[in-house]
Amino acid sequence: MxxxxxxxxxxxxxxxxxxxxxxxxxxxEWRAFVCAADSDVWIEIIPEIDIINKQIILPDKKQNQIxxxxxxxxxxxxEDINNTEMIRKFFLTIPTEITFLASCxxxxxxxxxxxIKLLGNDFAGLIKTNxxxxxxxxxxxxxxxxxxxxxxxxxxxxxxxxxxxxxxxxSGFPDSDQMVKIFSKIDPLTIxxxxxxxxxETLSSxxxxxxxxxxxxxxxKKINKNLLxxxxxxxxxxxxxxxxxVFELVTDENMNLKVSMIRQMxxxxxxxxxxxxxxxxxxxxxxxxxKFDQKIKIKREKLDILPPPPIKGNEFIQPLTxxxxxxxxxxxxxxxxxxxxxxxxxxxxxxxxxIYENEEATLELENHRNKFELGALLGFRNSKVSERxxxxxxxxxxxxx
Length: 401
Hints:
The chain is α+β, with helices and mostly antiparallel strands. The protein has helices at 77-92, 96-102, 109-119, 121-129, 131-138, 140-143, 153-162, 164-171, 177-184, 193-203, 207-219, 225-233, 235-238, 243-249, 255-272, 285-304, 323-333, 341-345, 387-400; strands at 12-16, 20-25, 31-36, 43-44, 48-50, 55-59, 67-69, 317-319, 349-356, 359-368, 371-378.
């Protein structure tokens, strides 16, 4: 006996795939069962459906988690026509009003139809007045795995009517009137469970951050996917730019590029201790970043410069006068002079690169109570230099004293 034998056969729709068979019980039964092609065991499932485009999407057994559109040419030709007709008839079982309500969202269509069936007009009314809150109800088990939605139908009916804050509390959000109003402004077509989970976790992580997010979302006229993502994934930006710039950013077609630009400025501002620039409008962002980058360049060059050496170099023996030169030569010679910056800035030593007759070496000039003496003179990987190069350096040093 199959689990769907008790249903009206006229309301059953059989979809045959290469790897499995799917049976759909149309509205108002609203059940789905799947069975592997080589088995007689039927399992009840919650399929992913697209009520807007009249599609049913299931993972393909042979291609793990790859979506299989039953309208596509991936099904066998002799089954495709029948499957397509079955799907068409299945979607026709859904009342027009319910199809319209579920179509307000981009996903969770199966769950929404079932919730409307179980909770009736109260839930349908909630979709019209606060669709994001309705979305939370059908996805509550993902937000709070310890809660089973279908075991608490009467509880939800009461909460929808009089205690909407309680719905938020059960899902892990602040249970306040402010939060209920915030949810009423979320665009249902762009809402995703992953965004809500990220927002919930962010709100519970830090009081200062939570206060900033709630303030921003309260002032927003409409909350789209970009704004939700900004509140969860780009807190560094959120905490430094004004509300006006945030609202410009989340409606900008080049948001990702501009987010990247702002984040780079924030990073450089902290690294080089340069004040983050005031941004009054995104229209001037490229110009603002150009000026800011110039300030960073000047600061970096200033910090990069090392004290001038006491003895001038020549064509073969050249002082390393910037950190960049020091690090580059240290990397080339595979030695540790890149770590001498503090000693050089304190005037304790100076580093020279030596290139003489195809031989390379690193020379350290040491300061002993304002008296300069030759320190280490070593080749690649601190190897011993040739007598010829050593004599050349000694001659240069003696003549310079």
